[in-house]
Design a protein that fits this description.
The protein contains eight helices and five strands, in the order βαβαααβαβααβα. By secondary structure, it is α/β, with parallel strands linked by helices. It has one domain: Rossmann fold. Strands 2-3-1-4-5 form a five-stranded parallel β-sheet, sandwiched between helices. Helix 2 (31-41) packs across helix 3 (44-54) and helix 4 packs parallel to helix 5 (90-102). The structure holds adenosine monophosphate.
Length: 194
Amino acid sequence: MRLVLLGPPGSGKGTQAARLKVELGVPHISTGDMLRAAVKAGTPTGLKAKAVMDAGNLVSDDILLAMLEERLSQDDVRNGFILDGYPRNLAQADALDHLLAKIGQPLDAVVKLDVPNEVIIARCEIRFAAEHRKDDDPVVVRDRLKVYAEQTAPVADFFARRGKLQEVDGVGELDDVTARVKQVLKQESAAANG
Ligand code: AMP
């Protein structure tokens, strides 16, 4: 299963991906986690990305594509992957399309978690208190939601136009949201198998 999880920051993509990877037996690829690891390790990519991330902006497409290309060349993605945090703008959606065509691994599904902004703001406040991620600061969260609306929301339309987008209500108990996503994936693979 090759799946992209879409949704605004704080919509639960990471949490749901961590659960789904066990069920689907495929790795969870989070570009945010990869960048945070690079920042922590002090790599050249991490040094370039840190200030951009702290401000809630998008790291450059070139850096992301190189990172993703390298990750998707690893052995453990042979049976698929759950991509969380990429693509985040139309240029990245296009780049992903080309990359997956090149390696002969087209997407099976794109699932968007729908969560209203006021729920997101409340969730990020809780995560900020627990994890102290600078980009969960309430002021930065508002900027990230703006970046999402302007740059990432069109990515959902990009997949919708190809008939690939499934939307799931991301509000409620974690188990309920996971069950909704699994239901959508089941329908998707039933449709694909005719
Ligand atoms: P996330 O954990 O997915 O919310 O990502 C945290 C931060 O990492 C984002 O606010 C961006 O600064 C950066 N980031 C993650 N994925 C991408 C991406 N696909 N393109 C650009 N920046 C990204």
